[in-house]
Amino acid sequence: MQVEGQPPPVTPARAPRADAVRNRRKILAAAAQQITAHGPDAGMDEIAAAAGVAVGTLYRHFPTKTDLVAAVVAASVARVADDAEAALGRVEAGARAVGELTAFLGRVVEASVTDRAVKAAAQTLGAEPGQRTDEDRAGGAVAALIRIGQADGDIHRDVTVDDIYLLFSTAPTEQPPAARARWLALVTPGLTTHARPTEG
Known about the structure:
- By secondary structure, this protein is an all-alpha fold.
- The protein has 2 domains: 46 residues, Homeodomain-like (Arc Repressor Mutant, subunit A, Orthogonal Bundle), CATH 1.10.10; 125 residues, Tetracycline Repressor, domain 2.
- 68% of the residues lie in helices and 0% in strands.
- About 2% of the residues have low confidence.
């Protein structure tokens, strides 16, 4: 019972239904696939069909294509952040930071080949949001990997998070796998104190 003069009790927010959560995930996955295949002109009808949901269901989750594309990018940033934090967790468990950082860089570049939203997400990681977001999580984990690697003597002292963002944004994602692997082999010595082995 509400007491006079006191604010009404706050009703807890209702958790989304399981089927709504599943539909949202399917829509985001289908949107990323369609955007990869057709670019930003991918149609909402085609995205709904690829997700296996009705067009009305798609619009209930995302009233406009702008909302949908923003959500795809946000989901991609979240995946990058999860990956970076997982890499940091492995370092805290005993792995070498330099290996985890370079492997993380390679994974993001490879993901960018088939998921343009991931590339867009990687390019937006340098933003400075006003609250703790997935960009903050990713940036914080990458910064920690760099600091630990520098303390280990494996990463150059002048390497910063901005350098990693620069590599993300300039990676040759349109090139074939051999060229991407060559690019990673060439840029890694710019991050690490270990000399690149010469080919015999």
